[in-house]
Amino acid sequence: MAIATTLFDLTGRTILITGASRGIGFAMAKACAEHGARVVLNGRNPDTLAAKVDELAAAGHDAEGEAFDVTDEAAATAALDRVVARHGAIWGLIANAGVQHRVPVLEFPTEDFRRVVETNLTACFVLGREAAKRMVQTGGGSIVNTVSMLGPIARPTVPAYIAAKEGLRALTRAMAVELGGRGVRVNAVAPGYVATEMNTALIENEQFNSWVVGRTPMGRWAQPEELGGAAVYLMSPAGAFVSGHVLSVDGAMSVAV
Ligand SMILES: NC(=O)c1ccc[n+]([C@@H]2O[C@H](COP(=O)([O-])OP(=O)(O)OC[C@H]3O[C@@H](n4cnc5c(N)ncnc54)[C@H](OP(=O)(O)O)[C@@H]3O)[C@@H](O)[C@H]2O)c1
Questions:
Q1: Separation between Cα atoms, residue 67 and residue 97, nearest integer Å
Q2: Which of 22, 209, 246 has most ligand 1 atoms within 8 Å of CB, for mutation?
Q3: How far apart are the first and last CA of the chain?
Q4: According to DSSP H, which parts of 108-225 are helical?
Q5: Which DSSP state fits 223?
Q6: C-beta of residue 91 within 8 angstroms of C-beta of residue 135
Q7: Where are the alpha helices (DSSP H) in 148-205?
Q8: What digits encode the pLDDT tens for the residues 240-249?
């Protein structure tokens, strides 16, 4: 039996992707656009964002930008309102913007802990709640949170990141069970080590780099583009009954001893 070609079709769906001016967020936005979605890219820097929107538009995709800081609740809510006003509905939210801060736990400043949690967890809650309010009014939708392989497993110097990402996994489940009956699915994607700007220092560190390569069964870092398919799947009809799920994209690192 032939597989329906509409399984991964996102035509007519408007998807906001936070942290989409580079790295994983941009790769997810590009993949969704390639499958027909109208993508709204977010990041804090309007110029960087405009360049990435132009890149997608030049390739024939339906792309626009909304520059705001995800930790600014008023700005995030206003952006969602503008998207709905322009297009009538928002189908998808990929809450992907995130920051890292590496300091040993005994020296980790409280203000940095709060900042990392604010960006990587609280902002995803606010955006998820506000997007879901609008989705339930316009026929449902899909929310995808970018978590991490770290959370259920840990390593030194990133306590705030690990706590925030594990919290985001739990929030994914909490929202999925509450919103399932309202037509909104909520899932998460958990990348392993991905070669993005966030990890430049680690990639350039020969010792860390060879640890990642040796510790990952697939023997390498992921490329950002390899996260695109997970986003398309969870946004598309192919994922129509998938909710509350955390999809690992980590080359089997999280299941290896
Ligand atoms: N790379 C990995 O190995 C890896 C592994 C697991 C999980 N992740 C997660 O994947 C997500 C993306 O990571 P990445 O590696 O692609 O990171 P990245 O290359 O550093 O990109 C981060 C993106 O987030 C945006 N951003 C940061 N803070 C923001 C804020 N307050 N408001 C709005 N946008 C903000 C940045 O744009 P501006 O700076 O212009 O705002 C940029 O577009 C993060 O949640 C990260 O924790 C990454």
A1: 12
A2: 22
A3: 39
A4: 110-117, 123-137, 159-179, 200-204, 206-215
A5: P
A6: yes
A7: 159-179, 200-204
A8: 999 999 999 9
For residues 212 and 197, what is the distance between their CA atoms, to the nearest angstrom?
A: 16
The strand pairing partners of 39, in sequence order, are 15, 63
64 pLDDT tier (thresholds 50, 70, 90): very high
pLDDT of residue 5: 66
| Any atom of ligand 1 within 6 Å of the Cβ of 191 | yes
Q: Pick the atom of ligand 1 nearest to 194's CA.
A: 3
Residue type, 128: G
As given in the structure block, the two tokens for residue 9 are: 């079709």
Contact 67, 44 (CB under 8 A): yes
Residues 157, 242: Cα–Cα separation, whole Å: 34
Domains of the chain, first to last:
14-193+224-246 (3.40.50.720)
Pocket test of ligand 1: the residue of 17, 24, 53, 122 to mutate, having most ligand atoms within 8 Å of its CB, is 24
Yes or no: say if 92 and 37 are a contact pair by the CB < 8 Å rule: yes
Q: What 3-state DSSP class applies to 89?
A: coil
List, as own/partner pairs, every contact residues 200-205 make where C-beta atoms lie below 8 angstroms and the sequence separation is at least 24, other chains included: none
Residues in the chain: 257
Structure token pair of residue 182: 């309202």
CB environment 199-218: b (16+ within 10 A), e (fewer): beebeeeeeebeebeeebee
